[in-house]
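>> Question from a student workshop board

For tomorrow's exercise we were told to take the sequence and the ligand below, predict the bound structure, and bring the output to class. My setup keeps failing. Could a helper post the expected result so I can at least see what it should look like? The ligand is D-glutamic acid.
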Amino acid sequence: MEHDKPIGIFDSGVGGLSVVKNIIKVLPNENFIYIADSKHFPYGTKSAGEVRNFALRIIKYLLAQNVKAVIVACNTASSVAIDEIKKSASPIPVFGMIQAGAQYAAKTTKNHKICVISTPLTQKQHTYLNEIKKINPSTEVFEVGSQEMINLVENGIEHNEFAVNLTKENLKEPIEKGVDTIVLGSTHLPFLYRTVKSVAGESISVIDPSDFLIIQVKEFLDNNDLLNRKHPSERLFFTTGNREEFKEKMKVFLEGTYIPERLDI
Ligand code: DGL
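>> Workshop helper replied:
Here is what the output should look like for this input. Compare the format with yours to find the bug.
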């Protein structure tokens, strides 16, 4: 049955687990396969071509597992490879982070000054800036590329003094410029929400693109009669890196006991 087929989800590491958390909350019946390409982490400091190749290899694997949809739970892969991924997955629908994040930011901002925190590669591609400007060309977009913040999360850290100081440094200029919205433009960053919010303060909205994306995914599945109405769901996790390490990281970021498998692709 189409409804029972899993959703394929991938990221370079633990970041996509922030998207998984939303799926479990909003689409609790869905079966899914999550792949963490830990062997190639970080994507954010690699070339666009390298990340594209990693992403296409994972897509090939997911398609062979008969997925009914794909979520590219990685802003960096979305920013460099979404068109190629969509082409190679067609007719299977593919959802990326950037458009959803840009739409969410454009809806949230009141003064049209937005900051996007991402990997250096996403920043270099200006994908968020371009998508936000497509919606409203007069919006000012401040792009912060910080691999260091993302690496903290990959190493299991959600909040500490070092993270706060690093975030302060990175957000100093955009905050001085008066942004009213900060986009967590890497799927690792929602795990630093508390840290970012403590620096941004009450008056600045800190938003997670996947909150918006999952609503779009749900609508799509519903409109196409693809929602799985049966419970419980099967949730499979794979890592291309060290299985024990990934298991420990999953314990930090995801409630419940899941045992990841090692995947050689
Ligand atoms: N989680 C990925 C993203 O959303 C990036 C992490 C990395 O540098 O590999 O961009």
